[in-house]
Amino acid sequence: MQTNLQFPNLDTARLTLNTLTIDDNDGLFSIFSDQAVVKFYNIEAFTSKQQSLDLIDFFNQRFKQQEGIRWAIRLKETGELIGTCGFNSFNSKMHNAVIGYEFASDHWGKGYATEALNAIIALVYSDNSPFGELYRIQADTMLGNNASESVLKKLGFKQEGIRRASGFWKNQYHDLTCFGLLKPEFTPR
Ligand SMILES: CC(C)(COP(=O)(O)OP(=O)(O)OC[C@H]1O[C@@H](n2cnc3c(N)ncnc32)[C@H](O)[C@@H]1OP(=O)(O)O)[C@@H](O)C(=O)NCCC(=O)NCCS
């Protein structure tokens, strides 16, 4: 990543992607306190607004430390926070990154995930990416997360295999399906 990197704001047809602030706490809590949203996550649904406040701080610190980035995703029309997405980690030596995302369940099925992820992937695979040279983006999904798999496939990700028992949370081991998207395979939508 560039040193002193400015947070890269993005615009799509229907969405604005920018930084999360503490003013987003109610919106973020509402997303992460929904059982449906965290069903395939390694965390339980939030029960306190301190947890969402801590998460905002975690995301913003990760960007400051140049370890990853998380965008707030807002509807252009109303400004409502409807989700977050970003790169959980960058491995600048290996030229790869791991993508993550979630949306408020009352906004599922409207194409917002595909639209937002297309924009952030286009940014990191562009010639003037602020994150340096990247060649591979990885996503891990839990078996049964068909909506997430559908989004990844629409964006050109290929299913590469299943890593057996590679996750442990909620008191059990989880197989994770590994998806990858290489730079030459990506065509912005
Ligand atoms: C996965 C998620 C981000 C998708 O968001 P979204 O805005 O609804 O995604 P989109 O509308 O862009 O696309 C969803 C696609 O999945 C399909 N889909 C939805 N539910 C599905 C299901 N149960 N089985 C198969 N496909 C499904 C939709 O039909 C759509 O595909 P289409 O455009 O070809 O019809 C959203 O469901 C979510 O936030 N889930 C919880 C968090 C999560 O699991 N994050 C990913 C962790 S790997």
Automatic annotation (TrEMBL):
InterPro entries: Acyl_CoA_acyltransferase (IPR016181), GNAT_dom (IPR000182), N-acetyltransferase (IPR051531). It comes from the Bacteria. This is GNAT family N-acetyltransferase. Residues 15-188 form the N-acetyltransferase domain. The lineage of its organism: Bacteria, Pseudomonadati, Pseudomonadota, Gammaproteobacteria, Alteromonadales. Coiled coil: none annotated. It holds the Pfam family Acetyltransf_3. It comes from Pseudoalteromonas spongiae.
